[in-house]
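>> received
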Amino acid sequence: MKRYLWIFAAPILAGAQIASVELSAPTLGYVFDEQAKSLRTVDGVPGSALLGGAVEIGVPLDWIALAPNRRYGLGVREGQMLLVRLDGGTGMASPADLPLGSVFFSPSGGTAAIYTGSRLEVYGGMPDNPNHLHSFAAELTGEGKEFAISDDGNAAAGLVGGELWRLSEDGAEALGTGFRAMTFLRHSQDLLVLEGGRLLLLRKAQGEPEEEAAEGIVKPLAFALSADERTAAILLEDNALLFVDRESHATARLDLTGSGAEGVWRAEGNAVFQLNRDASAGIWLADGDGAAPRLTAVLKGDNQ
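>> returned
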């Protein structure tokens, strides 16, 4: 059985040959095909989406992380970091003078942070003119480290074991415990965090948090923001997705039974979110752009 991973998945090695096809439009996003070591498109619109063909980028990949703007990604092939441009119909991969490590992108995708094991190396001007901006101390203890970087590259945060840290070039300052997820807002140093059953905003990643929403957020696991940053989609432990309007605080709940949801990541569209990274068990989308949220499956195309 062929297996596919959403491109946000952890690195997995495999090998096979692929045939190239043109990108179809519209494209909701991509999955990483671990067998073929290639990206594949998710074509169409929610409710009528198909897993498309392979994107020819010139070389096979061991893994890739895709920027939020989907113009490019950073991948690895045999120990070499590659810059993978997706501006055109087929894409192109070229060697990148960047360290190996876990990749985290700013909200707009113009800044990338690479965690090397003890420091967070930050590069601006992505993808056209990569330049090193900062080296933040990131010697955090624990498994499952996550990092966030602001669009200007001047603010960074770390999250490990529920503990939130503000990073600097000299060290890390603990901001509190009980946190589940975080993201900087676009073109801002304000940090949006999920803490317990609350969605909080930390202005410039410091100071007293401002509560944005709390009602209905019971046992949250993760969250993602819509393209306009107005809607937060919060994955709950009871296999549901809670859509929260950050301005009105209105909420809508979507039952995810049957989706096998692993997390929540924004797909193309405004409030469209992907729920799976491994397509062998099926790819599902949560569409919040309509009058009421709906759960839709991505079907395999004729070439699958």
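>> The chain has one domain: 4-218.
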